[in-house]
Please model this.
Amino acid sequence: METVYFDNNATTAVAPEVFEAMTPFLTRLYGNPSSIHTFGGQVMAHIDQARERLAALLGAQTSEIIFTSCGTESDNAALRSALLTSKGRNKLVVSQVEHPAILNVAKDLERNGTLVERIPVDANGRLDMERAREMIDEQTALVSVMWANNETGNIQPVRELAELAHSKGALFHTDAVQAVGKVPMNMSEGWVDFLSLSGHKLHAPKGVGALYVRRGVRFHPFVIGGHQEDSRRAGTENVASVVGLGMAAELAAQNIDNENTQVSKLRDRLEQGILNAIPEVRVNGDREHRLPNTTNISFEFIEGESILNLLDQYGICASSGSACTTGSLEPSHVLRAMGLPYTAAHGAIRFSLSRYNTIEEVDFVLEKLPPIIARLREISPYWNQKN
Ligand code: PLP
Model:
């Protein structure tokens, strides 16, 4: 069975060019980049090149990039550093729709005395800026709001929030794990203090990420030990993966226009096809401000998990809620924060595409999905009660 992979917000395929760039570092170039000898030392040049490539994608300086093990580590590092270094300020402001990599760190900090406020969203997942203005004050150390939501693809007004944070003397962090490579970014504009990203969301391997820290912003390391990464992130470098991330960044920079034309065209074809063919469906989130690759659709009165299971029989991969909440039958915290009715939140499916998807795959899903929905609704007590 061929796989039709529409779950790219969970993880992406490693690009062939990335794999190729990595392999020498898993075979012959295995030296430790910190070693004095030439064999090890030559590896450092490739880490430097990866840093240059990633900095170019972000419009950042190389000294502002710290390689980490994943998006989650970058999020942890940013939040904890900002709170540790902001003397006299003890408040963290996040949104209700952040990834658990932020929400659970916030909860942990809260247990240890940090004041945490969570900005609500409206029915479309847009931040309540009025509430944000009330919450962000002179006590605030850090405002952390994701650039784009992993479940709905919603793009948040990050620049406005950053300006709000700065007007009160607070720092601004954005979890851009889903946005990097899909949304043009230019850190040299200077309004972002910290930005998290993850390799495996942009066709690099799992287990590598990065944190951008704006020059001049104080940083307290999260992983403490040796002097790697200019003493900002200890641990022998994951050389092959760092090199892979560098190559992925280069490819992303080349591909960003395609992402916003070809990939979004495929996404729109899928979304419109579903809306045309199936009754009682709704697109969740803000369709105007959204990642080009994501659509989150509720098929009312049936369970998302049942839809996924039947799609899986055809090799079609999608997701209900975020990958991290899959396995529990709790509706996603994002859709709940948006106030979706129970019958819609439970039947939500996220389709997330990439540059490797094709029109044939979209049409295959459009052929298989309507009978699946009809079949599940036939046996749904909620659907039968309603009709
Ligand atoms: N932040 C967001 C928005 C994500 O979507 C994810 C992964 O799904 C993460 C953080 C965590 O990234 P990683 O899997 O690299 O730890």
Observations:
- The CA atoms of residues 320 and 326 lie 7 Å apart.
- The longest helix spans residues 239-277.
- The pocket of pyridoxal-5'-phosphate is lined by residues 70-72, 99, 101, 146, 150, 175, 177-178, 198, 200, 209, 323 (CB under 6 Å).
